[in-house]
Design a protein that fits this description.
There is one protein chain. The relative contact order is 0.09. It contains 14 helices and eight strands. Helix 3 links the parallel strand 3 and strand 4. The protein has a four-stranded mixed beta sheet. Strands 1-2 form a two-stranded antiparallel sheet. The longest helix has 34 residues. 51% of the residues lie in helices and 9% in strands. Helix 1 packs antiparallel against helix 2, helix 7 runs parallel beside helix 12 and helix 11 packs across helix 13. With 378 residues, the protein is an alpha+beta fold.
Length: 378
C-alpha cells in the first residue's frame, strides 16, 4: 500500500512539473518560474516511530523542469512495478499455502491393473500430491510381474526398492502420514497398519490391515490437516464407503448388458497388459463371464433390478454430503475421501455407465474439479 501511494504521488508530481512553464527570457534576463512540491501533512517515510516528521520545503525547479518531471514519472513507474510485484508474490505465497504437500525423495513404483478402481485411487492420490512414480502394469492372468510377492493382489507400492506397501487405503494413509509429518520413515509408519490374516465364511484366507483409514499424525498436525469439527471423522467415513459400497456398484453397471460387457472388456484389453491370444479370449469370454457374474453381484449386494438407480443414488448421496457451499469434501482442496471416490468413479470413463451417471446425477461439477486437481501429464 505504501509503495502504491508513493507511486501515485510521484506520478502527480511528474505531471505537475511537465505542465509547468520552463525558462523564458525577457530582454535577455532569464526569469525562472517557481514550482512547489507539496505533500499534505507528513513526508513519506518520515512519520514512523523514532523519526521526526517534517514538512517538505518548496523546491525551485530550474530550466531542466521537463527532465525532472520525467524523472518523477519514471520513479512513479518503478513504484507501481514494485507494488504489482509484491502483490503477485503475496498471491503466489497464498496459493502455495493452500496447495497440497509437495516434494519427496522417495522412489515409487506402482504395480497395478489400470482399470482397477483400487489402483485408480492410488494414482489419484499420487497425481494430486505431485509425487513422481513409475507404473508396472501387471498381467491379470499370469501376474508374473509380482511373482516375487507373497501378497498377490494389486495395487502394490514399492518404496525405494525395499519397502513394500500393500492395499490401496494403507498406501494412501501411509504416504499422507509421511508427507504431513516427516518425523518417521515409511517403514516406521507402516507399523501403525498391522497386517491381520483370517478366514472368511467360505474358509478362504483373508488379509486385512488395522487402522488403514487413519492418517497417523500428532495433535498439532491433525488440527492443521482437519481444521473443521468432525472433518477427520467424515473423511474416514466416506473413504470406507468408497471401498465397502461404491466400488461394488461398478461391475454390475459396466457389465449390465452383453453389449456393455463387451465394450468394457474391449477397454480393459486395450488398456491392460495382455498378449494377443490372452486379449482375444479375455475380450469375448471374459465379457460373457462378467455379464453372468454381474447378475450374481447384483443379488449379493441387494441391488435393484435397474442397477443404474443404485449408482445414481450413491453418487447423489456423495454430492449431498459435500454440500452446496464447498468445492470438495475437504473444503477448498480435495481430501482423501474426495480422492478415493474420484478414483473409483474414474474407471468408468469412456463407458456407457459413466455417461449415464454424468447425465442423471449432480456429480458433474465436482468431478470436473477433481479432474483438474489431479491432472497429471504422463
Amino acid at each position: 500500500m505504501m509503495a502504491a501511494a508513493c507511486a501515485r504521488t510521484l506520478g502527480k508530481v511528474g505531471r505537475l512539473v511537465l505542465d509547468a512553464p520552463t525558462w523564458h527570457f525577457t530582454n535577455s534576463v532569464a526569469t525562472v518560474p517557481r514550482t512547489y512540491l507539496r505533500c499534505h501533512g507528513r513526508a513519506y517515510f518520515t512519520g514512523g516511530a523514532g523519526f521526526r516528521s517534517r514538512r517538505v520545503l518548496p523546491v525551485p525547479v530550474l530550466g531542466g523542469g521537463r527532465v525532472l518531471g520525467c524523472a518523477f514519472l519514471f520513479g512513479g513507474g518503478i513504484g507501481l512495478y514494485q507494488t504489482i510485484k509484491l502483490t503477485l508474490q503475496r498471491h503466489l505465497a497464498e496459493e502455495q499455502t493452500n496447495a497440497p504437500e509437495l516434494g519427496t525423495d522417495l522412489k515409487l513404483i506402482l504395480y497395478q491393473y489400470k482399470t482397477c478402481p483400487f489402483c485408480s485411487k492410488v494414482r489419484a492420490f499420487l497425481d494430486y500430491h505431485g509425487l513422481p512414480y513409475e507404473i508396472a502394469e501387471v498381467n491379470p492372468v499370469m501376474r508374473k510381474e509380482i511373482k516375487w510377492s507373497t501378497y498377490r493382489k494389486v495395487p502394490i507400492l514399492m518404496v525405494d526398492g525395499t519397502v513394500q506397501i500393500n492395499d490401496s487405503s494403507v498406501i494412501i494413509s501411509a504416504l499422507k502420514t509421511y508427507l504431513v509429518s516427516k518425523e518417521r520413515t515409511i517403514s516406521q509408519i507402516l507399523s501403525c497398519y498391522p497386517e491381520m490374516k483370517s478366514k472368511n465364511d467360505s474358509g478362504k484366507d483373508v488379509t486385512e490391515f488395522g487402522n488403514k483409514y487413519w492418517v497417523m499424525v500428532n495433535n498439532v498436525d491433525a488440527d492443521r490437516l482437519y481444521p473443521e469439527k468432525n472433518s477427520r471423522k467424515e473423511e474416514i467415513k466416506w473413504r470406507k464407503w468408497a471401498d465397502d459400497w461404491l466400488v461394488h456398484l461398478i461391475s454390475p453397471n459396466v457389465y449390465r448388458t452383453p453389449t456393455e460387457a463387451l465394450a468394457s472388456f474391449d477397454y480393459i484389453v486395450r488398456e491392460g497388459k495382455f498378449g494377443t491370444f490372452e486379449g482375444f479370449f479375455a475380450k469375448y469370454f471374459g465379457a460373457a463371464a462378467m455379464w453372468i457374474i454381474s447378475k450374481r453381484l447384483k443379488n449379493k449386494h441387494n441391488l435393484q433390478d435397474d442397477v443404474r438407480q443404485d449408482l445414481y443414488k450413491a453418487v447423489n448421496d456423495w454430492v449431498a454430503a459435500i454440500g452446496k457451499n464447498k468445492k470438495f469434501m475437504g473444503g477448498e482442496q480435495p481430501n482423501l475421501a474426495d480422492l478415493a471416490v474420484f478414483g473409483v468413479l474414474r474407471v468408468m470413463e469412456g463407458l456407457e455407465a459413466f455417461d449415464d451417471m454424468m447425465d442423471h446425477t449432480k456429480v458433474k461439477n465436482w468431478y470436473q474439479r477433481m479432474q483438474k486437481a489431479t491432472y497429471h501429464v504422463c
